[in-house]
Amino acid sequence: MSSVNRDELHKLVDALPDQALASVERALSNLQTWPEIRRPMDELSRRIDAILAEREAPCTTLGSGNSRSTLGCMSTRLASAGVDAEGHGHAHASGMIRGTEFDIDLHRIFGQELQIERDIRVSRDKRNLVYALIIKGPDGTEARRETEFEMKGDPPSSANSL
Amino acid sequence: MADRNTFHKLLDSLPDGALEAAEEILRSAQTGKVPFRQSVQQMRRNVRRRMALPPPVPPMEHLQKRGLPMPSRDDLDANRYASGVAWEGETRVIFKIMRIHRQELQIEERFSISEDKSKLRYSHQVLGAKGKKDTFEIGFKCT
User: Fold this and answer.
1) Number of domains within chain A
2) Partner residues linked to B103 by β-bridges
3) Is residue A33 part of a domain?
4) ipTM
5) Domain range holding A137?
6) Yes or no, beta carbons of B124 and A133 under 8 Å apart
7) Count of CB atoms within 10 A of residue B80's CB?
8) Which of A48, A86, B19, B30 sits between 20 and 30 A of A19, alpha carbons compared?
């Protein structure tokens, strides 16, 4: 049994600043199905692990936050997961395999799941950055898009292992 | 936006187990911490600010454990990213700057749901180092 008094919560609602109302409404709506909030994130984290295993990513965790490092043919990996009070969640992993950067996002949003994968590499002639996007929707459909961007300056030696 | 009566009804229908979490959210909202949302512009500024900072250095113990040398700042700076999340009305916006092989890409993704909640919309825009922009939009049926 919770020690929190509902009357006290009603007083807190009356004192809410107007600019917080939209966010708090979504958060309280999300709490109606307790304890559902955290569970989707575990699923997303497991899925990220499965995707990395599929790719046989020889990952070495080196950094944290927004840093990573590429040391010759060594790959680095960052994986993170988080869910906000409103139940929107996001799990992420990225790294580099043989000169191709991969970046995977799994989103749980509006109760739906969306998987977004990016592969980014230098073209064979080393003039362009090739950006490939794969999006898998909640209904199972998949969309792909590939774009090339002209490069500025020379790529570093880590891009030469293509 | 809902009026405060709706909030009181939401509180009355909360399961007992969720009361502590609700209290935490309501107290945070009073003090302006969570769940106030930053604007998309503020979020983009914060992401750019983070990318302008020197690259964070990986923890020495991780490197030592694997017998790896400390990478140079140049190596660290060549491949890194920063990202942020914000809301524009009912649209979730993610902005990400990726530096890959020293090339910078700015990516903005938008997620929204149709009014009847039957369709999830996703839009994606990527801006390359030399100003080329690619935009893409798709809708998915909700399950």
Assistant:
1) 1
2) B100
3) yes
4) 0.72
5) 6-161
6) yes
7) 22
8) B19
